[in-house]
Amino acid sequence: MKAVVFEQYGEPAEVRDVPDPHPADHGVTVRVEATGLCRSDWHGWQGHDPDITLPHVPGHELAGVVEAVGDRVTAWHPGDRVTVPFVCACGTCGACAAGDQQVCERQTQPGFTRWGSFAQYVALDHADVNLVAIPDEMSYATAASLGCRFATAFRAVVQRGRVAPGSGWRCTAAGEWVCRR
């Protein structure tokens, strides 16, 4: 497959042929249809994230189609349209059990702890916990923007701002939080 790879922090990346990824028994391989570029990718490329090992393929804002499924995956099948949050949870640690998958104690992140979505294919772990279905009417580009940007903002509002879903607050199409009352 083709992927964007960098060998040294801060040095130019290049498109090259690399081996296709294969799913773990609890994971999937996704054919990337859209991927975003985030400031976090720049930090990774600069060497600010100790979880990155070189050579590396960045990219964590993605959407695509499930191509291959691990033996233990039950909820996803080849052909499913999916996206994934920035933090991929294990589904079994204390944080996950408490409903706080975004701060999973054994989290992984495509493009950081493992190769990411600046490639034709990406392997994602714990698919039954992490994948999110994309409606047919939603573009891949729109879906790719949800995993990092929307999930981060949602957590900030709900968890840190203590604005509970259903509390009368809603997010408008313009991204503003307004009270329905």
Describe the structure.
It is built from five helices and nine strands; from the N terminus they run βββαββαβαβααββ. It is of the alpha+beta class and 181 residues long. The strands form three sheets. It has a five-stranded antiparallel sheet. A two-stranded antiparallel sheet has the order 1-2. A hairpin with a 5-residue loop joins strand 8 and strand 9. The radius of gyration is 17 Å and the shape is globular. The N and C termini lie far apart (52 Å). The relative contact order is 0.20. The model has no long low-confidence stretch (mean pLDDT 88).
TL;DR?
This protein is α+β, with helices and mostly antiparallel strands. The chain is built from 5 helices and 9 strands, in the order βββαββαβαβααββ.
